[in-house]
TrEMBL record:
This is Citrate synthase. It catalyses: oxaloacetate + acetyl-CoA + H2O = citrate + CoA + H(+). GO terms for molecular function: citrate synthase activity. The keyword Transferase applies. The lineage of its organism: Bacteria, Bacillati, Actinomycetota, Actinomycetes, Propionibacteriales. It comes from Brooklawnia propionicigenes.
Length: 392
């Protein structure tokens, strides 16, 4: 009697939009950005080049790439007062809400009058790609009570972020090509993923006419949930808890199967991939390389591999098509690089930024765009009259 065509809890079977950015075949474990398989991009491309591809739709020529890198290099600084603003957050503030707050600070410049001219969209695009790593590093340093370092534009995009995160005014950061390349690849693998929870949030906010900074801030907040981007932090917390509890992999897997206290095998399962997440396979390759270099928690990596093996041998998981997703191994690599678990989802956000920007641009340049407003199935009370307080 509702007259609605479908009721689709969690929009699992509803196409909320048409998009030319990312193609996923969940059953076959295929992921392509603008038609290019991520396996090739992870091998051949850089994150900044992939960001260009995701946003503009084509791989850049050498000249276009040089111009793009120069545009980004010139915008890495943020307003000096942002440093004071970040210092207002208590020490050990989680860097995700700090990043979202920094984005809202950026949105104050153009909160009321969203300008959809190509020039304005280009300016916002390069400001976000250039400044988010600086905001992320500021949030991280401030949470540790350490000096926030200015960007050094003689460095590459990834090196600049690593240095702002780990160097001190008194101590330089020692670069390792394998670490820099591993972070480049990890960010490539996170660049877009069609209409996931945080991207759908960016589109929904953008559909109301809100500016891109406020839309992306919403995406950061959606990403922070442990069922979405926050899973990379939850995986390492799960592995550490298993280690500390001393229970065996077999016992933990049984607790998950018994749905004890609602625990899940974090980093496993996916709304779309009913096969191995192709990103997880690539990330796993880098785990060993990075951990041979840096003192990563090899004990947790071993535990993760045992958990994966146990789950993939168990009908409970294979019947439900539960396989490792992008978050299962990424946190272990980030931790080996020196990031604390609270920064893992910030790194996911830096990687997902080109996708959020590309999807917002695709939305606002679509002349037929509609404001997001799904209907519902009402299951509440029927009409009833007000009861005065004395009669309740
Ligand atoms: C990301 O959408 C994207 O693209 C997201 C992402 C991206 O790039 O943007 O890929 C990034 O968010 C990856 C997912 C990270 N989240 C986690 O790793 C958290 C753990 N995973 C689950 O919460 C879950 O798998 C979801 C939320 C990811 C997907 O859930 P679904 O597809 O809605 O599955 P469901 O909740 O309907 O569960 C189906 C069955 C249930 O069992 P039964 O009720 O049938 O007995 O599978 C079980 C669930 O209990 N199940 C799990 C499980 N995930 C689902 N059981 C144990 N451990 C799990 N992780």
């Amino acid at each position: 009697e509702t007259g609605y065509t479908t009721y689709d809890d969690g929009l699992a079977n509803t196409a909320s939009t048409m998009s030319a950015i990312t193609y996923i075949d969940g059953d076959a474990g295929v992921l392509r950005y603008r038609g290019y398989p991520i396996e090739q991009l992870a091998k051949e491309s850089t994150f900044l080049e992939t960001a260009y591809l995701v946003i503009y739709g084509e791989l850049p020529t050498a000249a276009e790439l040089a111009t793009w890198e120069d545009r980004i290099r010139r915008k890495t600084m943020v307003d000096e007062r942002m440093r004071e603003f970040f210092k207002m957050f208590p020490r050990r503030s989680h860097p995700m809400p700090v990043l979202a707050s920094g984005l809202m600070m950026l949105s104050t410049y153009s909160f009321d009058s969203v300008d959809y001219t190509p020039e304005a969209i280009e300016k916002a695009t390069e400001r976000l790609i250039a400044k988010v790593p600086t905001l992320a590093a500021y949030g991280y340093k401030n949470s540790r009570g350490e000096a926030m370092l200015y960007p050094d534009n003689s460095l590459s995009y990834i090196e600049n972020f690593l240095r702002m995160s780990f160097a001190y005014p008194t101590e330089p950061y020692e670069f390792h090509d394998e670490i820099t390349r591993a972070l480049d690849v990890l960010l490539i693998l996170h660049a877009d993923h069609e209409q996931n929870c945080s991207t759908s949030t960016v589109r929904l906010i953008g559909s109301s006419g809100a500016n891109i900074y406020a839309s992306v801030a919403g995406g950061v907040n959606a990403l922070s949930g442990p069922l979405h981007g926050g899973a990379n932090q939850a995986v390492v917390e799960m592995l550490s808890a298993i280690k500390e509890s001393g229970i065996s992999v077999k016992e933990y897997v049984q607790q998950v199967k018994d749905k004890k206290a609602g625990i899940k095998l974090m980093g496993f399962g996916h709304r779309i991939y009913k096969n191995y997440d192709p990103r997880a396979a690539i990330i796993k390759e880098h785990a060993d390389k990075v951990m041979s270099l840096k003192a990563g928690r090899r004990d947790l990596l071993k535990l993760a591999q045992e958990l994966e093996h146990a789950a993939l041998e168990d009908d409970y998981f294979t019947e439900r098509k539960l396989y490792p997703n992008v978050d299962f191994y990424s946190g272990l690599i980030y931790e080996a690089m020196g990031f604390p678990k609270e920064m893992f989802t910030v790194l996911f956000a830096i990687g997902r930024l080109p996708g959020w920007i590309a999807q917002w641009r695709e939305l606002v340049t679509n002349p037929k765009r509609k404001i997001g407003r799904p209907r519902q199935i009402y299951i509440g009370e029927g009409e009833r009259d007000y009861v005065p307080l004395g009669d309740r």
